[in-house]
Write a structure and sequence with these properties.
mainly beta, three-stranded antiparallel beta sheet, two-stranded antiparallel ribbon, globular, disordered C terminus, FeS-contain_CDGSH-typ, MitoNEET_CISD, CDGSH iron-sulfur domain-containing protein, metal ion binding, 2 iron, 2 sulfur cluster binding
Length: 76
């Protein structure tokens, strides 16, 4: 019986969630392994544990969010 395909979930403004275990090949050729049943792969490259997500993306301000549309007090 064939193994079912791995599921990858792309979170908006967040990590890629991949059913594990996984092997990740980094851009320098190193291979890192995640043995959990679900791993979060960083897509913003802000993680101190890259390629694993450490939620550093939450600190990034969205360019298209409400704060980006509001003019400073003196310019209204």
């Amino acid at each position: 019986m064939a193994e079912r395909p791995r599921r990858v979930v792309a979170e908006r403004d967040g990590p890629l969630l991949v059913e594990g275990p996984v092997e990740v090949v980094l851009d320098d050729g190193r291979v890192v392994c995640g043995d959990r049943f679900l791993v979060a792969l960083c897509t913003c490259r802000r993680s101190r544990r890259f390629p694993w997500c450490d939620t550093s993306h939450r600190r990034r301000a969205r360019a298209d969010g409400p704060a980006a549309d509001a003019a400073p007090e003196g310019e209204r």
